[in-house]
Amino acid sequence: VLLQKTPLLGRLRDDNKAATWNTPFGSAKLIRDLKRKDEVNGRTYEWGYPNQDLIELKIDSTHFNSSRDMVLGIVDYLDEIMWLISFLSRKYIWWYRIDIDGPIKIYGNPHMMKHNRKNRDDEHSHDLLIDLKAFRATESQTLFDNFRNSPIKGKILSLIQYLLITYTDSFFEHELAISHITLEKLVHNFSGRKNIINDGKFKKIRRALKATLDEQKSVDLTPEELEQIKGKLPELQRCSYSERLKLLFTDIFHEISDSLESRATPDDLLNQIGELVSRRNKFIHRGETTDMKLAYRDVCFTRFMVGLWVLKLLDYPLDKINPLGHDLFGSTTK
């Protein structure tokens, strides 16, 4: 399966430790520069794909009733798993050709190739969120299995698809806006605590507040103004966006404390959430971006946080992230 170039096959010289995993119909290996030798009628023929990124699939044909079923099964599997490979690569990666035993060729959807508009030179293996050696040695099987079998795959896919938009070559405010939207999707889907107190307690408080508003004489309010203020009371029950984010990431930041090294502490990152939300409110509600350096750090920080949660949802050990990853480094650079 021929792919676009992926930093998962980066500059590490440990090609013997390719990422491997089992698919529903056989084994898979993510490799570069496949070479083969075949003997036919006593002659040796060399063939391969020099300097080409690809997935080598070894298929048990008994899983399929026909060649057509096999092709459709492979294509469906690849179309889904490419989203995970893209997330891990920090850029759109898509397959564009399948060669079956050489002579049979199947071509992918060319429109997917157009998604990858990225042209900045930050696509190296040392920029990745995951530790590449750990991924190749032990974690690839877990990631691919958990992604394929996750009961919340739709929500994970949605986060990945939004996150990938922030890695395309676009104007900066577009990346900033999409990164904030992605973070909000994460909070909406996975933040367990939405209210400060339960409905029963809040009904009593709201009733008392309405009575106080009706009885107060210190401020002259029109009936319309009074009703508008009462209409705002339900908002008092909700947790702030900042607090919900902190609840989501308190344990995670402590789990990755070793990877932060001396650049930041978990408490530093939790405080940074409050600063990010303050700048986010000005950007979303007023269109203000006063400090581009801080805004760029916010993009890195939101991508870093969402990426961590995707890895958490896939049961990837967070103590095996890359301490020099682009978004982690960008999040903690003053």
Provide structural commentary.
It is a single chain. The protein is an alpha+beta fold. 51% of the residues lie in helices and 15% in strands. It has helices at residues 67-89, 110-113, 132-149, 153-165, 172-190, 199-215, 223-232, 241-255, 257-260, 266-286, 292-313, 326-331; strands spanning 2-3, 19-23, 26-40, 43-59, 95-100, 104-107. It has a three-stranded antiparallel sheet with strand order 1-5-6, with helices on one face. Strands 2-3-4 form a three-stranded antiparallel sheet. Helix 1 (67-89) packs across helix 4 (153-165), helix 4 packs antiparallel against helix 5 and helix 8 packs antiparallel against helix 10. It is elongated.
Order of helices and strands: EEEEHEEHHHHHHHHHHH
Biggest β-sheet: count, sense, barrel?
3 strands, antiparallel
Distance between the amino and carboxyl termini: 42 Å
Low-confidence stretches: 117-122
* Helix/strand class: alpha+beta
Put simply, the count of helices is 12
Could you give the topology of this structure?
Blueprint: E1 2-3, E2 19-23, E3 26-40, E4 43-59, H1 67-89, E5 95-100, E6 104-107, H2 110-113, H3 132-149, H4 153-165, H5 172-190, H6 199-215, H7 223-232, H8 241-255, H9 257-260, H10 266-286, H11 292-313, H12 326-331
Antiparallel strand pairs: 1-5, 2-3, 3-4, 5-6
Helix pairs in contact: 1-4, 4-5, 4-11, 5-11, 8-10
Give me some keywords for this one.
alpha+beta, 3-stranded antiparallel sheet, 334 residues, 12 helices
